[in-house]
Task: inverse folding
């Protein structure tokens, strides 16, 4: 299973989920789906926006958890 780990990056950057939503142009609902692990997929364009806003690499956001 692939997880998206926003919590630590947001904490490290001193950024709230609300601030991230504004920067990347996403709704809080969609970011919450990613944050809580309920997302089934993520678009590369969304991943790019998140990486740009958080100044990180995709590997900083995505984690593999064996089932």
Result:
């Amino acid at each position: 299973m692939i997880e998206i780990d926003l919590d630590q990056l947001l904490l490290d950057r001193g950024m709230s989920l609300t601030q991230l939503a504004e920067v990347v142009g996403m709704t809080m609902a969609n970011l919450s789906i990613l944050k809580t692990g309920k997302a089934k997929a993520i678009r590369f364009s969304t991943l790019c926006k998140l990486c740009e806003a958080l100044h990180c690499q995709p590997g900083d956001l995505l984690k593999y958890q064996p089932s």
